[in-house]
Amino acid sequence: MSTQTALKAETAAVEIKHFINGEFVAGSGGETFDNICPLNGEKLGVIHKATKDDVDAAVSAARAALKGEWGRMPTAERVRLLYAVADEIDRRFDDFLAAEIADTGKPKSLAAHIDIPRGAANFKVFADVVKNVPTESFFLETPDGAGAMNYAVRKPKGVIGVISPWNLPLLLMTWKVGPALACGNTVVVKPSEETPMTTALLGEVMNAVGIPKGVYNVVHGHGPDAAGEFLTQHPGVDAITFTGETRTGEAIMKAAARGVRDVSFELGGKNPAIVFADCDFDAAIEGTMRSVFANCGQVCLGTERVYVERPIFDKFVATLKEKAENLKLGHSDDPETNLGPLISEEHRAKVKSYYDKAAAEGATVVTGGGIPEMGDLNGGWWVEPTIWTGLPDDSAIVTEEIFGPCCHIRPFDSEDEVLKLANDTPYGLAAAVWTGDVSRAHRVSRHLEAGIIWVNSWFLRDLRTAFGGSKMSGIGREGGVHSLEFYTELSNVCVKL
Ligand SMILES: NC(=O)c1ccc[n+]([C@@H]2O[C@H](COP(=O)([O-])OP(=O)(O)OC[C@H]3O[C@@H](n4cnc5c(N)ncnc54)[C@H](O)[C@@H]3O)[C@@H](O)[C@H]2O)c1
Ligand SMILES: N/C(=C\C=C\C=O)C(=O)O
Q1: Which residues form the Aldehyde dehydrogenase domain (predicted)?
Q2: 285-295 residues labelled b (16+ CB within 10 A) or e (exposed)
């Protein structure tokens, strides 16, 4: 069995193969594409392109595993194996860290504190859910007095198609694979073409801990007319879970309609942060710095619209400017680095187009707006952290998801006004509220059209809670018991006594 070499950033010719039925295999079409490091634009290696036949082989392997040892496995054994997956990710922490950094260019400090630990946590939390969550039962009185017993049974949905994005590759892929496997399903994963490494590496972990072959499969390639679409259109896929852009979600939903397959979508956002004058100012600044600039602004839950109550507007803008100008852009390995590059040349061009649009619309460019000089890293896809004020509420800068290290700040004068502003978006993913008034915190949160609202915090994650967006930000909720609704079929058994 060929094994995927441990993916190290310094390995120049890493060949990323598909992982099908427990084996790393080349694509049947013999085609590959380059894997480029966003830090410096250098080639990391090549990625195999899946053909329809490769995707068909992966779906067949997943189906066979459902009918084999995995489908017959007692829950307790499945739970033990998922904990073993988490422990093996922890044991190979440095390999996952090197792979994630190579693929994304993100600071090592960020990947080490968020991306990789969550890879392990996402298996443990759902192993615990399936071990401990009861199902319902009802006793029915019947006319003959004997009664009837009703009880619910949860069964795996089957073969789950998992399509994941490039911003938090391991975290977001395992956020889907964890519950899918915990509920007894099998998966075929199509990671982003930008960031295949940690998804590939997880195949080694699955083999090492003894997850039966065919339970976890990985196919690589792009989306349209490629691996992504071949997977969503495959009739052997029972349900599709997807994280990515809203417009991609629309395309996948069309594919899922054929065969009436269920979907779970985590899509785009244009999230507001609302800062009241009575907030803990330093905490609001620290939290907004993270929600705007973390992961180079490439977080779906991130803030791109900041609304600040007028009495503290000038002070807030000046302080955020000073902090943004102190952000250190640099090499992933430098412990001082707190801002990495954008994921690709294409994405940098998209973000830069918004920078140029803002300037053309007459925005006040509080800081940034350009491409920084990065010396030996000039080959990477860098942009300056950027803050604007002064744009109209209907500007594309204020209404469209940019997905970069930037935000627009606007003053407001009343709670009613800021709720209207915050909710004036086709998205409904996340929001942050900064205030010292507890009643106001609860009142404003309840009126925000978002799936996830943080008060005096951001990206504080309890994995048992419901996670997902409303409106154009998604379909369904995952997290804790909520994931069971998507990853299992619920039956009711009624026994006449
Ligand atoms: N709501 C969330 O939790 C969440 C989390 C992370 C990212 N996102 C969103 O994802 C976007 C950034 O990620 P991205 O650029 O990778 O998104 P994307 O939609 O371009 O791609 C996501 C994945 O979908 C695949 N894909 C693309 N077109 C497809 C098609 N027609 N059929 C099947 N698969 C297809 C891609 O290959 C990739 O694997 C942003 O909009 C961000 O808001 C949302
Ligand atoms: N789904 C999650 C994060 C999403 C981040 C978006 O970029 C999570 O923390 O579980």
Answers
A1: 25-493
A2: bebbbbbbbbb
